[in-house]
Amino acid sequence: MQEQTQIFGIRAILEAINAGETIDKVFLQKGLKGDLFSELEFALRQNSISSSYVPVEKLNRLTKGNHQGAVAQISPIAFYDLENLVMQVTESGKTPLFLLLDQLSDVRNFGAIIRTAECTGVDGIVIQKKGGAPVNGDTIKTSAGAVFKIPICKVDHIKDAVFFMQASGIKVIAATEKTDDTLYDVSFTEPCAIIMGSEDRGINPSTLKVVDAKAKLPLLGDIGSLNVSVACGAFLYEAVRQRML
């Protein structure tokens, strides 16, 4: 099983970017200056690669080598192009089912969702380039290897994916408590994409405004919410149930 690897050193990371490596995230040392460091910052912005500024102690924990103030995490998978994937699925003759994850942050939730998505025949998962959980060793393990079996796409913003889905004739359904409709009131039999929100904030309010339908799970106990991977499983299997009728 391929694990996520690391590249350390400013020049080495620049070379990886220029070589087209799939870089998931770069950790940069806070307060570092210099022309080469500025060149790396520019390359990260130009290529929309997620980065964060961290204390040098974190970089020292990530690698025992001479990191020069920068450590990159290389994704173990290659990401798909959303437009090509949607076109491919649409032209295949099957009824598309996509899953959009709005900045899900926990890698184990992410892995569990990937596993369920693969088991329920989801055609592709869409995540945001920044702010979400990475595809790393924990994701691979929790997904039971499903991460290598289902296409995953990255977009600048989940709303970009929503608009593209809608333009492609795919209905976008948000899993949210901010509605009176349950998932049993919504049709999943037509081409559709389900959006799941982050663990703490849910779906971005601006994204909620542009979806085609909203649905919630009926909660009969005292706890006000479900774990996002469990909720996602309920939505996906309702889609399966409706499509098998």
From TrEMBL:
The RNA 2-O ribose methyltransferase substrate binding domain, residue ranges: 6-80
One Pfam family from the record: SpoU_methylase
InterPro entries hit by this protein: Alpha/beta_knot_MTases, Ribosomal_eL30-like_sf, rRNA_MeTrfase_TrmH, SpoU_MeTrfase, SpoU_subst-bd, tRNA_m1G_MTases_N
Keyword Methyltransferase: yes
Keyword Transferase: yes
SUPFAM superfamilies per UniProt: alpha/beta knot, L30e-like
Keywords carried by this UniProt record: Methyltransferase, Transferase
Single GO term (MF): RNA binding
GO biological process, one term: methylation
Alphabetized Gene3D superfamilies for the sequence: 3.30.1330.30, 3.40.1280.10
GO terms under cellular component: cytosol
NCBIfam families: rRNA_methyl_3
PANTHER family: 23S RRNA (GUANOSINE-2'-O-)-METHYLTRANSFERASE RLMB
The protein, known as: 23S rRNA (Guanosine(2251)-2'-O)-methyltransferase RlmB
Lineage per the UniProt record: Bacteria, Pseudomonadati, Bacteroidota, Flavobacteriia, Flavobacteriales
